[in-house]
Write a structure and sequence with these properties.
Radius of gyration: 18 Å
CATH class: Alpha Beta
Bound molecules: flavin-adenine dinucleotide
Shape: globular
Number of domains: 1
Strand content: 15-25%
Strand order of the largest sheet: 1-2-3-4-5-6-7-8
Structural class: alpha/beta
CATH topology: TIM Barrel
Helix content: 40-55%
Order of helices and strands: HEHEHEHEHEHEHEHHHEH
Number of strands: 8
Number of helices: 11
Length: 290
């Protein structure tokens, strides 16, 4: 298996899919079938999230291993630092290494919902950049490291300039590339890239794309993660909220236009949040991949 940093150096654009580890056996079987179908599209990589507060890590790693061994597609394991001590993180990464996984997305994660005021102790990493530093100091260049980026600023840091400086700290700490949070206004992404370039960040900033399949769900999700929903999205999707078929078909149209504009204007690829489903990502991907 290759490192994603090498692939990003070789290819102008990459295409990728993100999955989450399901909680049930039925969900797991469904995910394997989804991976099997989306693998036929030959994406450059597939990434797998880890559960809130570091939950389900074993499953995350197992799925990444499956993607690599069965489908020969490069896998990226998400690793969060919140909720685990430095020693535990070291054990997790040792296992990741022994499984032959070369690519990690280094994240802070979020406090648990039932304990939103959870604070890291002195044996925890507080921020993702500390995890990046740790990975580089403990493993050198063994892993390719990705980090999360927030085109509109992270929900806890609405000062976009400051948030961009925090992103730069992750790059300086050894991150190779950035995957963005979802957004619906491309100009937010392009302005973000511009802010980062001004700070000297030259690394790929891969836009994260979520197709809209359910208006109310997306409204709720964006409220939580701090992504804004532009008026044009409300105008298209609110009136058809009760019609799943129309919502999916408008969601495909919207995402295809969004992706085409991103690619045309220099985005280094697309990272799709699949929600473990083949559709509508399969259709969108076939429409937009050059
Ligand atoms: C592509 C992507 C994948 C994700 N995958 C997962 C996943 O698998 N599992 C999961 O639980 N969550 C995941 N998340 C969610 C992520 O963990 C949360 O958004 C989290 O709140 C922020 O993570 P981070 O790594 O960006 O944190 P950080 O970069 O540490 O930032 C966290 C907050 O601290 C601020 N900050 C950063 N550095 C400093 C500093 N030096 N001083 C003061 N403030 C600072 C930032 O502005 C921000 O407000 C993902 C998000 C994205 C965009």
């Amino acid at each position: 298996m290759k490192k994603l940093s090498d692939i990003l150096n070789q290819r102008q654009k990459t295409y990728s899919f993100e999955f989450f580890p399901p909680k049930t056996e039925a969900g797991y079987q469904n995910l394997l079938a989804t991976i099997e179908k989306l693998a036929t599209l030959k994406p450059d990589f597939m990434s797998v999230t880890c559960g809130a507060f570091g939950g389900n890590r074993e499953r995350t790693a197992e799925i990444v291993e499956h993607i690599q061994n069965k489908h020969r597609i490069l896998g990226v394991q998400h690793v969060t630092c919140i909720g685990n001590t430095r020693e535990e993180i070291k054990e997790i990464l040792d296992k990741t290494k022994s499984r032959g996984i070369l690519n990690v997305l280094a994240l802070r994660g979020d406090p648990p919902q039932d304990n939103p005021n959870w604070q890291p102790g002195k044996n925890n990493f507080r921020y993702s950049y500390e995890l990046c530093e740790f990975i580089r100091s403990a493993y050198g260049d063994y892993f390719s490291i990705g980090v999360a980026g927030f085109p509109e600023g992270h929900v806890l840091c609405p000062d976009k300039e400051q948030d961009a400086r925090y992103l730069k700290m992750k790059i300086d700490a050894g991150a190779d590339y950035v995957i963005s949070q979802l957004f619906f206004e491309n100009k937010d992404y392009f302005k973000y890239v511009e802010r980062l370039r001004k700070l000297g960040v030259r690394n790929p900033i891969i836009p994260g794309i979520i197709p809209i399949t359910d208006y109310q769900n997306i409204v709720n999700f964006c409220k939580k993660c701090g992504a804004s929903i532009p008026k044009k999205v409300h105008d298209i999707f609110a009136p058809i909220a009760g019609d799943p078929q129309k919502t999916i078909s408008e969601g495909i149209k919207f995402a295809v236009n969004q992706c085409r504009e991103l690619l045309k204007n220099g985005a280094p690829g697309l990272h799709f949040y699949t929600l473990n489903k083949v559709q509508p990502v399969d259709t969108i991907f076939r429409e937009v991949r050059g």
